[in-house]
Amino acid sequence: MSDLTQLTISQARAKLRGKEITATEITEAYLAAIDRANPALNAYVAVTGDKARDMAKASDARLVKGEGGALEGIPLGIKDLFGTEGVHTQACSHVLDGFKPRYESTVTTNLWADGAVMLGKLNMDEFAMGSSNETSYYGPVINPWRRSRLDTVVMPTTHQGDGGFVSAGGTRTARSLDNAQLVPGGSSGGSATAVSAFLCAGATATDTGGSIRQPAAFTGTVGIKPTYGRCSRWGIVAFASSLDQAGPIARDVRDAAILLKSMASVDPKDTTSVDRLVPDYEAAIGKPIKGMKVGIPKEYRVDGMPEEIEALWQKGIAWLKDAGAEIVDISLPHTKYALPAYYIVAPAEASSNLARYDGVRYGLRVPGKDIVDMYEKTRAAGFGREVKRRIMIGTYVLSAGYYDAYYLQAQKVRNLIKRDFENVFAAGVDVILTPATPSAAFGIADEDMAADPVKMYLNDIFTVTVNMAGLPGIAVPAGLDAKGLPLGLQLIGRPFDEETLFQTAAVIEQAAGTFQPEKWW
Amino acid sequence: MSVDVKTVKRVARLARIAVSEEDAERMTGELNAILGFVEQLNEVDVSGVEPMTSVTPMEMKKRRDVVTDGNKAADIVANAPATEENFFLVPKVVE
Asked: Which family is it part of (chain B) (predicted)?
């Protein structure tokens, strides 16, 4: 059998059930791939080889008896934000040094119950705060995609003996890879890189302002943030509780549907988990979209957006039209206020959630002359710059005298953003099509973004509205830019209508194809 | 609105993050850039709009007031930097 890491989840599932391959074989293939690639890509912060082998062995025993679950024997990577019992769980922060929880998050519990195998924990921006995976205590993740350039090569005229190869000269074009390292996006940069570089069959991720969809778009993978309340937040390190949602990053739309079906559940341990049965998302793939109403919001055409993104959007519109969808122009008038409102609401919630890192209950402790000194020194040493910045903003906007002007105003604007979407859906729009990001992947240590935090925040301009309104959104790869980097489109759906997203994303995927980076690592 | 170094130090104290003079200077610039960015929210007419309290309309789930979990003291202190007999140890807080 050729390289088992190349199989999609649906292909591996068929071969595992058909006893053509074993869970142990595919797990070993991934562990070997991680071993080779991780020094270059830094996607994993902990590899759980022994655990993976034990889980694979147990999967093989169940598969032999024909008792395999929905994900039996499928090797997955888990974002470091998910609590995994006895295993490295540090949200890629120094402040959680050495933390190994005595519990398992609901989402990962669901995955293991369906037979999935854990390969290890994936790198991410510290506490999921970032759009480039550069705020991780464990260093940046490298995007497996690199820019390439088209060269014109002059072909010499050659003769290689009788009947041998003859080249008549002339020119041809060849793509050559640039050496510059690019970011995979964030915060789920480890998840996106691991999926794109074949270091796991699929990965868990989380999305507070775009942390699933932006890295998916930057790596040519599929990422879905489900409706708020669809996946339990229990056991996931909290960032901004009214915005955080877990979801998968996968190599194609079908794999994302398979993973979400297993991740989602109704959980009494999370009071915001919604009492709705989890549908069979895979069944939505392949259903025709004839007559579906697709909204195109004019506010997503922003100043300074590269022409290629606009062209990609137009291509997406044409594909859906060709498939029989009705395209309608729509307006979401409060779109431009989503990002500023987010940068009040999310830091406010984060400053409260991160108060627990005090050097007493877990993780790092830096001694001080009294308890307050100990708190202050521990938090100063334990949190990175971006996390401190957000805690400071959150503390400020919640402090006496400023609460009404900032937090209350932002929560009112948030209601207006949600209302914009409700109005459009009430008018009969089934799904909204937008670009996923305002650019392709950018370079590691980008100077403009390092100098101005707001520039980095603008990465989430198309994705953050969805979190503010609690809606489901999927990023699906739709093409490559002139430099050979992947670009994604985003579909936004009604609450709990993930099925329409999978159905429509599959049409885009069918037209655009799937994308793999050229291997250099 | 913008902040000065004094305010930044006060906020850092509230957030229990030790900052050096240099940190405070740098943070002042960064926080002002972010506060300048969010300023545009003031132009939105929010008259008659309620602040959002729940992103999905749902009733607060309730459960019976009974013990469903417990006897996990050892698990709870397992990750603490300093413990004794299932208590968290902290620097002396009373004289």
From this structure: Belongs to the GatC family.
* A211 is known as an active-site residue: yes
Asked if B51 reaches chain A (Cβ–Cβ under 8 Å), the answer is yes
Contact A389 B80 (CB under 8 A): no
CA distance A408 to chain B (A): 6
Domain ranges of chain A: 4-144+184-289, 148-177
Tokens of A5: 């890491």
Average pLDDT over residues A302-327: 95
Active-site residue flag, A10: no
Q: Kindly provide the ipTM of the predicted complex, given to two decimals.
A: 0.96
Measure the CA–CA gap between B56 and A415, rounded to whole angstroms: 11
Across the interface, whether the CB atoms of B56 and A229 are under 8 A apart is answered yes
Contact at CB, A337 and B1, closer than 8 angstroms: no
Let me know how long chain B is.
95
- Class of the domain covering A4-144+184-289: alpha beta
Please write the tens of the pLDDT for every residue from A287-301. 999 999 999 999 999
CA dihedral B60, B63, B68, B74 (to 10 degrees): 20
Question: What domains can you pick out in chain B, each with its CATH number?
Answer: 5-41 (1.10.20)
Find all residues with CB under 8 Å of B3, minimum gap 6, and list them. A396, B11, B28, B31, B32, B35
Q: Do A442 and A116 meet the contact criterion of CB atoms below 8 Å apart? A: no
Q: Cβ(A217)–Cβ(A475) under 8 Å? A: yes
Q: pLDDT band for A168, please (50, 70, 90 cuts).
A: low
A94-126 residue pLDDT tens: 999 999 999 999 999 999 999 999 999 999 999
- Count CA within 13 A, CB hemisphere, residue A276: 19
Taking 50 as the threshold, does the pLDDT of residue A163 lie above it? no
Per-residue pLDDT, A160: 52
